[in-house]
Amino acid sequence: MVAFPNRIRGIRLFRKRSSNMRLTRVTGEMAMTQFMSRLGLAHDRLTSATFVLAQFCLFVIVFAYSYETVSRYFFSAPTWWSNEIVPYALCAATFLALPKVTRDGGHIAITFVLESLSPRGLRVANTLIALLSAAVCILVAWICLQANIQQFVREEMLVRVKPIPKIWVSVWLTYGFFSAGLHFLRLAIPRSATAQHA
Prior knowledge:
The chain is mainly alpha-helical. The protein has one domain. The protein is built from five helices and two strands. A hairpin with a 5-residue loop joins β1 (157-158) and β2 (164-165). The radius of gyration is 27 Å and the shape is elongated.
């Protein structure tokens, strides 16, 4: 008859342990979700900051062309730096803006096939498209990174009036494709697991 209270105590202890394990698992999942949300928020802030830099690059392009036009045709004093800066700024602006365009869904899309799908089919198709796009962007970013490393190691220069290291221009491609790839991955994951963008 003594074994009966012991059995009850054992059941209570087992239930308590099970409850603690469930609580630990739930707490762990909440911590992971919170961590992923913070990463998503940091990524969104970086994306917004680099978009501001892209806008500044466009300002530099307009200023350089305007200055060159006035200087060349009104004062007969063409500059050497205008034609140098504009292509660099255009490259940087394009790939600094790419992540925000990706995040906002600003890419050109032909949607007549997607619009004919059921809601479930549309979700599946959007997820597959986002995953495929992420894979392509991250693969291109990897190829660009390999080129960046080679350019840095070999100290490769752009042959212009004032030569500059190639990596100063090509590094923006790596950033743009990698960040866009992360945004596509986040699009493929349910919204609850990622931070809402600003």
